[in-house]
Amino acid sequence: YMNIQKRRFLQHQITQEKKQALNYTEKVAEEEEEKAPEVDSAEEEENQPSYNPKNLPTGWDGKPIPLWLYKLHGLGVEYKCEICGGTSYMGRRAFERHFQEWRHAYGMKCLKIPNTVHFRDVTRIE
Question: Phi and psi at residue 58, in whole multiples of 5°?
Fold first, then answer.
């Protein structure tokens, strides 16, 4: 532990001596370098788009969700609802949830059909 502190002290001392020996233009250039934000390699990886060859939807972390999870939730299946103005929903869960949304309720109201459990799976206008 003492060796580490001694090494840091000596490095600090050397850098201070170098700074005192610099002329005005070198000092200005060094100050600009210190002011410039340094980007870590971890930050660079976050800013780059992730590899997504199958165009899977992204999760909460911005990375594509695993393929097995995509298939498990049926996100490759598209469900359409004519009552909602031809809106399509990806996955059964999103489709089931849309029956409680305002758009479907308004469409049912316009058709003079009560938006109850009995008419839950009504999605076509014929």
Answer: -90, 150
Cβ distance 81 to 89 under 8 Å? yes
pLDDT in tens, 5-37: 888 888 888 888 877 777 777 777 777 777 766
To the nearest 10°, report the CA torsion of 73, 75, 80, 84.
80
Q: Is residue 83 within 8 Å of 122, Cβ to Cβ? A: yes
Give the length of the chain.
126
Q: What is the pTM of this model?
A: 0.53
Residues 70/63, Cβ–Cβ less than 8 Å: no
Rounded Cα gap, residues 85 and 102, in angstroms: 12
Residue 58 DSSP code: B
